[in-house]
Amino acid sequence: MSLLSLPYYLVLLVLVLFPILFIAGNSVLETNPHSGMYYFTFDHYTRIFTEKNHLVINSLIRSLYFALIATFICVIVGYPFAYFLTKLKAKTRALCILLISAPMWINMNLRIIGWKPLFEFPNGYLTSFFRDLGFGDINFLSNGVALIVGLVYIYMPFMIIPIYTSIIKIDKSHLEASSDLGGSPYDTFMNVTLPLSLPGVLSGITMVFLPTATAILVPSYLYIPGEHSGQLIGQIIEFRFIQNGSYGFGSAISLALALIITLMVITTKKIDKYTTLQEKEGVGR
Q: Total domain count for the chain?
């Protein structure tokens, strides 16, 4: 290990490894109320499955559900936009990328708060608009619409940029070869552009799905658990740590969530590796 890499390992140790070990320790330790001594236990993990009304499991499923919807919308909207960017002139393309990334320079709190007047209940602009149309009072904060809009708005750039990078790096000779062989623009896109841009799509999915599944800030402003909707996993963890002071249970939920996310990342990497191998074999032919 060289001296130049020492700061990197130091930061990794202090900011990544130590917090993980601290949370892992909290998740398997409990304080004896009589002696004040710590003892080893897996009760925090069993509570995840035995909590009343399956609170944690349901909140996790709900969070993954909203994350899937937000990620799907980001792919459907982000891919055509990224593809369109690659067809622009260099200066126009640079300006568009600047406009896409510019909102990320603004504090996330301010960006999310800007959506509240639109979705507030019962006097938000959108609720009032639909009420005037005769649809009654629609609570966009509790039905998840405001949450999904907020998640898509915040994380859309993280989908567009990786896809754009993948498409712009495609060797133009592949596209020309497809045209020379009589392929239509549609055939060229489906057989060349789309397969070669899949690594960018998978990267975008990873960069969007993971933070949306564990989001805390966006739900705190744009999501209110209602009669037919409950809390999200990020809100559960925040409540256990900050308001309830149940560090052991909160740590167990956090580690369980981290394990699920890790498995998803590994799966995505496997798919990415497979698609890359298929691309190389296709080019080799």
A: 2
Q: What whole-number distance in Å separates Cα of residue 67 and Cα of residue 209?
A: 6
Both tokens of residue 205? 């999915």
> Tell me: the pLDDT tens digits for 146-162?
999 999 999 999 999 99
At a CB cut-off of 8 Å and minimum separation 6, what does 172 contact?
none
**HSE-up of residue 172 (Cα within 13 Å, Cβ side):** 3
Whether residue 32 sits in one domain with residue 70: no
Q: What pLDDT digit, counting tens, does each position of 213-251 carry?
A: 989 999 999 998 865 567 899 889 888 888 777 889 999
Residues 20 and 118 in one domain: no
CB-based contacts of 261: which residues, under 8 Å, 6+ apart? 210, 213, 214
On whether both 206 and 115 belong to a single domain, the answer is: yes
Q: Could you tell me if 100 and 199 lie in one domain? A: yes
- Reported confidence tier of residue 39, pLDDT bands at 50, 70, 90: confident
